Amino acid sequence: MYSIAARALDRKCILLQPVSIFKLNYCYYSTQSPLTNKNTSFLSKIKNFSDELNRQVKCGINDFNDDLFYSKYYLKTKPMNQLKRDELVDLQRHKKDILYFIPLFLYLCIPFSTPGLVIYFKYFARFLPSTFSDRDGITKRQISSLRKTQKSTADYIQTLPQKVVSAFPSNISNLHFSPIQYQSWSQLRILSDALGYTLNFMLPKELLLHRIYSYADKLINDDLLILKENSDYIRNGEFKNLTIEDLQDILSQRGINYQNKSYVQLQSILVNYFKLVVTSQINPNSESSVNVPIIEKSNFILTLILFRHIFSKEKEKKTIN
């Protein structure tokens, strides 16, 4: 199962002392179907299936409890400005898990509700706490979400001037974007769809802009933190401190499809993203009062969309060849 506490222990970033305060229950749940044995009777298959569901629920609850202790006795004892990026990600993931755990807990309180978990896990998997999914389940949901945003990205590209689209990335220094706030409601709706938001057709222009700028703020702050903690990128153009899971999650958050990519390929994509989207937007003569580089949010979003477009076109060419 996918536990932030177990991941933290794997990173060797914490020392679990004393054990009585924080204890990890390593719980492995296999996604192998228990109904594959053709020699067992129908009742045995039903029993095995029920046992597998109960085991998944037990593992998910145990891992959620581990994450609760990890968050309470380790993450929340440190000031927010002293947390590393992976710790901030863990804390945000756990807060989201708490919200997702509420409806699941209410459902589990219903007598004899276990058989219905099949439907819950299949159709509402995205609303489950991460501790109830293995890594394969999380990547499948990420890839499914990325496929949906790819179409909206292509639709939004069609609304941009052709000279802007054709100039990226070869002439990136001379790109001149029209600020997002001057775009039409229909353009902003498509852009918001491309960023992964839903129900955009119900929102006025002001709320769409708020969504888009909030998305930009989140990614920019995360990008600057990644640069700060990965000095290898500045020297060698690589991110040695990031695992393959980190790379997949980072690219997924930015709407970049990582399907069937190796660790080296993921590194290459992320390096190009930082060169073309992040560092190209940093004005070396412009810093905030706390010495943090300033990135213009409108240009950042539009450059990100263009990077997605170029990356998807290259992927299509490789597929055809």
TrEMBL record:
Keywords associated with the record: Membrane, Transmembrane, Transmembrane helix
Transmembrane segments: 98-121
InterPro entries found in the cross-reference section: LETM1-like_RBD
Short name of one Pfam family: LETM1_RBD
GO molecular function: ribosome binding
Residues annotated as domain Letm1 RBD: 83-161
Protein name: Letm1 RBD domain-containing protein
Organism: Tieghemostelium lacteum
